[in-house]
Write a structure and sequence with these properties.
This protein is an all-alpha fold. It has five helices and no strands. This is Potassium voltage-gated channel subfamily KQT member 1-like.
Length: about 180
């Protein structure tokens, strides 16, 4: 409180901090009238104070680093695992889409169910494989029909325009080479 005095009759600055402005002006005048006393510390006391302050600083710094470090490591690990998880989800989604579109390798060859019926997967690879099989079958049929027509023409002595026209596959192969 402002009315309490120190041993020598002076007020401590912390006690005057709650006093109004006018009271602090009076206090400043009173302090200036009295000679200021400076207490000299010995070199040993100064060194002891410095050592205590350094120890407090190093303890506070170490506590700060310990409090901060686990969060940094946790954040890095969490970000890494989150990124890894996102990458794995994307890879699985791409793999699923590829399997749905093209089919798993070897699955377009088809298999057999328990009744012995051939399974027909509905992937693009399976459809392409079936289309190639059907195209090969059509080529065989046209070749056999052409051979029969040539045999009939030879029996009846009818001239044919050409012995054999190239198949669409042969035309593509001749264009690519």
């Amino acid at each position: 409180t402002p009315s309490s005095l120190a041993k020598d009759g002076r007020m401590f600055p912390s006690q005057t901090s709650s006093v109004t402005e006018a009271a602090s002006d009076e206090m400043d005048c009173d302090l200036m009238d009295e000679p200021q006393r400076v207490t000299l510390l010995t070199e040993a006391h100064r060194n002891a104070i410095r050592a205590i302050r350094k120890i407090k600083y190093f303890v506070a710094r170490r506590k700060f680093q310990q409090a901060r470090k686990p969060y940094d490591v946790r954040d890095v690990i969490e970000q890494y695992s989150q990124g890894h998880l996102n990458m794995m989800v994307r890879i699985k989604e791409l793999q699923r889409r590829l399997d749905q579109t093209l089919g798993k390798p070897g699955s377009y060859l088809g298999g057999f169910d328990r009744a012995g019926n051939q399974l027909k997967p509905m992937t693009i690879g399976a459809r392409l494989f079936r289309l190639e099989q059907q195209l090969t079958g059509v080529e065989r049929k046209t070749d056999s029909i052409l051979a029969l027509m040539q045999m009939l023409a030879q029996k009846h002595a009818i001239p044919l325009p050409s012995p054999r026209s190239p198949t669409p596959r042969e035309e593509l192969e001749s264009r690519n080479t």
